[in-house]
Amino acid sequence: MKQVLERIWSREVLAVLALVLIPLVAWRWVLWREHQHRLQLMEKQKQEAIAWVRRMEAIRQARRGFAVGNPFPQLNVVSETFGRMPLRERGTAVLLWFPLWFEGSAAWRPEEWQVWRELLARCSHLVLVGVLVTPSSYAQSNQHDLQQLSRRLQHPRIGFWMIVNDRWANDDTGEHNPFIQKQVMLVDGNGIIRYTRLLRRSMPSAAEIKQIEEEYKKLHALR
Description:
There is one protein chain. This protein is an alpha/beta fold and 223 residues long. The protein is 51% helix and 17% strand. It has 6 helices and 6 strands. The protein has helices at 2-63, 101-104, 114-122, 136-153, 166-169, 206-221; strands spanning 79-83, 93-98, 126-134, 158-164, 183-187, 193-198. The relative contact order is 0.15.
């Protein structure tokens, strides 16, 4: 009799557990699925927003003469350079890089530049030029930073171009500043723009570096 009661009790406990646990697990699964769906929707919306910004920026820059296939415009701006600046040097391609200064400040430390060093090691006829647009109030400190960085990097194919322009530096709408922040622009030895890309962050990712290298190889193959 005792064994029978224990069996009945065990079955009742199992039935109660099943009635409680199955709906609970099912509800948790539904909540997880809904959360994953929201994450996917947010990521899709984010990618669409990024793509829209890139399209608008590309249209804006193309209107200013920065379209692929055009000569890099003669801007006639007051500038200061550090290191090598071989624009329109036959046989040498230049990768212009326009980092977002306050986002990319950490990336301007020499120890963070391994990604660029590796790219230049694989692309023997490529020169990297970082372009910084700065207001006059920060010109002296930025000049010092670029001088220090150039000396510490000690790379024969890395240069910097500092543009002191209050109107450009304080332009949040893109109305005046012709450059797009977080962009790279590949210019061939004849000064023709061959490739442009907006980076997700100031310092490029591995996938973005790979794409730049592929575009450089296409250009180098045409020589």
